[in-house]
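Final report, closing paragraph on structural work. Over the funding period we assembled a curated collection of sequence-structure pairs, and we close with a single example.
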Amino acid sequence: MKEINKVFYTSVFLFLIALTSTVKAKILSLGNSDAKVTVKVFSSLTCPHCANFHITVFDKLKKDYIDQGLVKFEHHAFPLDLAALNAEVIVRCASSDEKKFQLLDEMYNQQRVWAVGSDINKINDSIKKIGSDLNLSEDNMNSCLESSDAQDNILNQRIEAQKKYKIKSTPTIVVNEKEYTGKVDYEKFKKIIEKNL
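Its predicted structure, as stored:
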């Protein structure tokens, strides 16, 4: 009996390790995993302030710090509506992190085009248009959108983020586990990065 218990607990332990690894792997990240600075952005793809942060800060941050191996950047899905959830699903449909970040860029750049109206079918068509422009197949995107696992993974991420970080609005930006509350301005944001290096 002791041997059976030992095997059972070992199996449960290994399953939990695998589950933890899987959950971590679902976060979109870019940059050196051993960087001194980790920037986490909790955002909804339909949020204009999130798009503004991504468009005005992310590209410069990538060039100056992420590509230099000084900063690890994490995009945490925090969808506020069905349109944002479906856009996140399509982003995760891509096979590589590089392609996922290209999709993320386009979702933010074209937010005013696709994230409008209340007809979710039209919104989905607009989202899929962005995906097909980046060579995602229609079949692949449809199967991603129909996958309850894909949606559940994103929503579970949101629940975990809410529990851990008590998110009140999007974007919520966390630098080395401290919330950044300053203005969305690259020069000011850069000072926080420099302080942590």
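Confidence is low (pLDDT under 50) at residues 1-25. Strands lie at 28-31, 37-43, 71-77, 172-175, 178-180. We thank the funder for supporting this effort.
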